[in-house]
Amino acid sequence: MTILGELLRAHPTVPLGHYPTPIDELPRLRDAIGGGPRILVKRDDAIPFGFGGNKVRKLAMVGAQALADGADTLISCGGIQSNHARATAAAATQLGMRCLLVANGKQPEHPTGNALLVKLLGAELTYVKDRDDRAPAMDRLARKVRKDGGKPFVVPLGASTPLGALAFAAGIDEIVAQGVRPDVIVHASSSGGTQAGLLAGCALLGLETRVMGVSADDPADALSATIGEIIGGMETLLDREIAVRAADIMVDDSFVGDGYGVPSDASRAAQTVAAQTEALFVDHTYTAKALAALIAWARGGQIAPHETVLVWHTGGQVGLFA
Fold it and tell me: Distance between CA 187 and CA 82 in Å, rounded?
């Protein structure tokens, strides 16, 4: 067992999904973009539970903590088409808990995509105007649950806590066990937990892998600071120093385009080439923009032709049907 594996033994999970997720090579995509590095994809979109995605990994650990705390209600938040909200609702159902969600935006008359699945899963929704209104609304819901005799467990946006991030440190242990030690990992980065976990996992296993996050919304400086804070929390959780320097936290915010979830010309092109070369489906909010960045970096030489790059597909394909 690796050092990381030993550290992870102290942090249980609940069985949400089946692991390891596949790693596929994408030779036709590589040819279509004019050659360059070897391209692999980590298929967290293929997690069978709740339509999969990176949030399921995080919630497997966070859900175990909620159970250990005796919680009977999960409370979380997101946008109308939030992948995290959908995964949280699914986790609550699996764990036998009530689910209360705060969504910023207007209540849809005819729910589609993730909004439809959240409704089907029986989550109770509270709608607020802006993103900044979500945390206060979750606090109010938690107080009401306690007043009514329940025991809430609040899951921050994206389950991007040190414990949630630990699930992605475990993901690095998983890919190493699959025989893959990439030179570069490319993924979409938003609430910071996935990138923090990947960086921590590489550091704890002594990998020199560059973890390159492609921002889905926030400026690079703000997101990098959040990632650093989460890694600091992971050090406390593990009672161990994690050798991640500020320079190791690489975030590119130049592929956001017109905003969160808004398609760009580059994400449209990436989505199309992935589908038409590899039958790989990616959404505009997250993985299409990460893939657009990879294509630009491969063509521009930021990733060398002799290197192996692993695209971590964080899911979100439900968004194609919104």
Answer: 18
**DSSP label at residue 131:** G
Among 282, 294, 67, 293, smallest CA distance to 163 is for: 67
Cα 21 off chain centre by: 14
Question: Could you report the per-residue pLDDT of 144-185, keeping only the tens digit for each?
Answer: 999 999 999 999 999 999 999 999 999 999 999 999 999 999
Q: Which of 82, 190, 224, 267 is catalytic?
A: 82
179: how many CB neighbours lie within 10 A of its CB?
7
Compute the chain's Rg from CA coordinates. 19
Q: Is 4:11 a contact under the CB 8 Å cutoff?
A: no
Our CA angle for 298, 204, 314, nearest 5°, is 45
Q: How far is CA 314 from the centre of its chain?
A: 5
Q: How far is CA 42 from the centre of its chain?
A: 12
Q: Are 220 and 192 in contact (CB under 8 A)?
A: no
Distance CA 165, CA 212 (A): 16
Q: Could you say which DSSP state residue 286 is in? A: T
Tell me which amino acid residue 80 is.
I
Contact 193, 211 (CB under 8 A): no
User: Whole-angstrom Cα distance, residue 66 to residue 68?
Assistant: 5
Catalytic residue list contains 82: yes
pLDDT band at 322 (very low <50, low <70, confident <90, very high): confident
Cβ 217 vs Cβ 206: under 8 Å:
no
Q: Which amino acid is at 72?
A: D
pLDDT (tens digit per residue) in 201-255: 999 999 999 999 999 999 999 999 999 999 999 999 999 999 999 999 999 999 9
Q: How far is CA 108 from the centre of its chain?
A: 25
* pLDDT of residue 1 exceeding 70: no
Sign of CA dihedral 45, 51, 55, 60: negative
